[in-house]
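Worked example 3 (structure in, sequence out).
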């Protein structure tokens, strides 16, 4: 999994590329936990290039959302592949995560 990070309007934006499987979830968790440790609680995850997510990836997302919200932040998911979006809908994550079609829309939500 390839993860790039940038700051935009005081919000941390991660661009994810690849599979969020067991190995990718470890990389994602490390990147997101590092951001949280640095006090970055407003996170946008651009997932346009993510074609697969498994339970390890979902657990990482849930953990990070819980930590961000506990610190008055949020985690926004952007540009979900239809298959990934469907997985999130099936397990009900779409009720907890803010999901947007563009990074700009996600940034505006803060």
């Amino acid at each position: 999994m390839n993860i790039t990070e940038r700051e935009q309007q005081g919000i941390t934006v991660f661009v994810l590329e690849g599979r969020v499987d067991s190995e990718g979830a470890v990389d994602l968790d490390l990147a997101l936990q590092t951001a949280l440790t640095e006090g970055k609680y407003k996170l946008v995850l651009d997932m346009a290039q993510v074609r697969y997510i498994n339970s390890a990836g979902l657990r990482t997302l849930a953990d990070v959302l819980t930590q961000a919200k506990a610190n008055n932040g949020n985690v926004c998911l952007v540009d979900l592949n239809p298959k990934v979006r469907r997985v999130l809908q099936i397990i009900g994550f779409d009720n907890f995560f803010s999901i947007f079609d563009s990074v700009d829309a996600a940034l505006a939500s803060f």
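Notes: The chain has a mean pLDDT of 96. Strands lie at 2-8, 11-20, 42-53, 74-78, 98-100.
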